[in-house]
Records
---
Amino acid sequence: MKDTENILSNPRDQAEEVRALQDTIYVIGGKWRLPIINSICNGNKRFREIERSIPGITTRMLSRELKEMELNKIIKRTVYPDSPVLVAYESTEYCTTFGNIILEMIKWGIEHRKMIIDKD
Amino acid sequence: MKDTENILSNPRDQAEEVRALQDTIYVIGGKWRLPIINSICNGNKRFREIERSIPGITTRMLSRELKEMELNKIIKRTVYPDSPVLVAYESTEYCTTFGNIILEMIKWGIEHRKMIIDKD
DNA sequence: CAGAATCCTCGACGATACTG
DNA sequence: CAGTATCGTCGAGGATTCTG
């Protein structure tokens, strides 16, 4: 099984990797999923709080995404029926599995910004 | 500066992180960027070769993305003017900076698929 | 082989206003 | 506060055909 000429993993592995990559992109695709997950993982719980923590997002998009993410068990939504309606969003275990991806993306974004500045 | 009640980093850091995250999403957003980068980093060089390595992509999208990624110095395009036109795409250093993100996303995708199977 | 040209669809996303 | 309801746009992406 030696294949010194080819550094690459075999075609089957490659095919599996592309699929895995595409699956992931499908799940966390779009502009808002990851920022929302990140915000909630950072401890933001209230709707307006999350909203304010993500530049550019609208209530409509936040509402939509939260709803679907709740269905997919990515987050947990709890209503406390006190006087002023209180709702809290919290991360689930599932939610935390995105941690490394988010970390790497934040790292990249910071490095990228440095690069841009250096170039000017 | 002790703040034992708050595990979170301070608001300024959080704001920077969201921005970084959004920057990254902007750069690698869409269905095709990362799969293409991945394919090229895996050693695929020819147009049809890359195309075949990415399930679902059309020549139109591949063409569009490659063109823009060349402009952004994410990849390098070389034409060898031999008898049958030969073109080779190669990764640049810049291209490799996405490595960790892609790796984490592949990991996640593979784990995710396992989960789905176990649940059935 | 390596694409360009065309035409088209549809859904992600935005803006704004309103509700309990 | 925590959303819902409407309306609208625009561009990512798809399907197909054609070219050197």
---
Amino acid sequence: MAAESQRKATVSSTVEDYLKVVLKIEDMKQRASTSRVARHLEVADATVTDMLRKLKKAGLLEYKPYYGATLTREGRRMAVRILRRHRLLEMFLHQVLGYGWEQVHQEAERLEHAVSDLFISRIDALLDFPSQDPHGEAIPDARGFRQVEDDLCLAEAEPGSYSVRKVTNSDPEFLAYLDRVGLRPATRLSLQEKAPFQGPLKLLPESGREPVYLGLEACRSIFVLPRKDRPPASASAPDGPASREAGTRGSRK
Amino acid sequence: MAAESQRKATVSSTVEDYLKVVLKIEDMKQRASTSRVARHLEVADATVTDMLRKLKKAGLLEYKPYYGATLTREGRRMAVRILRRHRLLEMFLHQVLGYGWEQVHQEAERLEHAVSDLFISRIDALLDFPSQDPHGEAIPDARGFRQVEDDLCLAEAEPGSYSVRKVTNSDPEFLAYLDRVGLRPATRLSLQEKAPFQGPLKLLPESGREPVYLGLEACRSIFVLPRKDRPPASASAPDGPASREAGTRGSRK
DNA sequence: GAAATTTATTAGACTGATCTAAAAATGAGG
DNA sequence: CCTCATTTTTAGATCAGTCTAATAAATTTC
Ligand SMILES: [Mn+2]
Ligand SMILES: [Mn+2]
Ligand SMILES: [Mn+2]
Ligand SMILES: [Mn+2]
């Protein structure tokens, strides 16, 4: 063997989307099973089985029948490349063309396959090499290097002070809602209480005065960073005086 | 019949390109024959025969076997829409992302199918509703209205003073060459002589001091406007104290 | 640990876009 | 009007991506 290795293998936009989904699933520390991939792409399971076999043959991922897929080095490289394009495009649409954060995803989902490398490098420079997209997600750099994301899922957070790090949901309705109640990346908020039995969280975004009650499910797509807790205050507060958190310079809006 | 009429018919990018080519051929006052369409798209004739039948069935063009195609109202509407997108995108790439005029076509050829109407209207506004693309071609307006283009093919022009109106050629090499010798939209030049027997034309672009000898064939893609002939003046030096050159800010490398 | 449920694969088909090779129509010239 | 070169269509295939229905493997439940 050892016959592959011609760089520049060019793949269809369909393949790019499959790879991106597998990456996303792996990032969530889940198994990229046939049905999971199928759900993300909204295609039939049988279609995925087929495609995974093809992608394995193309050397882009490992595939064990009845188990699922794992990206190879090359497959991951391609997936990260598309992820970078996607997020850079979202930032471009938001910053340069004035798209709302709930509008960017859909457009980027198509453009990521259509623009050239030149286009990407031009918008990268135009945006001054941003490190995050409008949802607060990290943009891999040109060499495919990805920032570590050490944030906390709001659904698992304890009452306290936080700031919104990212929102991993692309449903326009949902995003428009968050925007309305004043929850977007960099917003500071305090989690005031969590109702028991999968109940909603009571949040106070720094912007709006009104508290917001958000269902637990919805909170799963919001990620936050703990903040050096509010003024002296009372007991509780399981914090550490903020140690980590290097990299990730914010620049957005 | 009378069963069509559901607006919003969405077509593939392949279909969009077919329609655009038929429009282009019709604009050149030629018959959109199978083989001519095939040549423009670089596909086999048989492929075109097939597609033209499909497009006829879809109501986008008339198709007479052994004769060729003619756009219907609806087909023309779609074709003009893509043409608008293409040219607006070229202008955007040139003005906003600093692409050279020889680089824009290829990228626009893909993007024209991938961007949304929102994207188009945003770049249109950003560019302040331009009426021409970087090659000097008219950009149809949002309602599909197309400016009449009353220009003259340089290949058919008599010696005299002209200004370059548009260049209808998308070969990057060729465009880069024209750029180098100082021939681009809005450039003033004098056609000094035409060699007989399909010989080259001797041109003096206002910018460069050197005369340029351009083959007749090449001149077929350059269109000019006659200018109120050079000042009284003597024989040579058809200059003007540097006035021209509005639009098209150059920035490339 | 067998049955029931869930998940995955196989089989068979379809659509859109393309090709090559062969057959047929067109049109120019004699 | 007949012949031949050119253009076009027809026939038959392929490839990517998708589907549904049937079958089979894996996992969960009792
Ligand atoms: Mn997105
Ligand atoms: Mn996509
Ligand atoms: Mn063009
Ligand atoms: Mn195109």
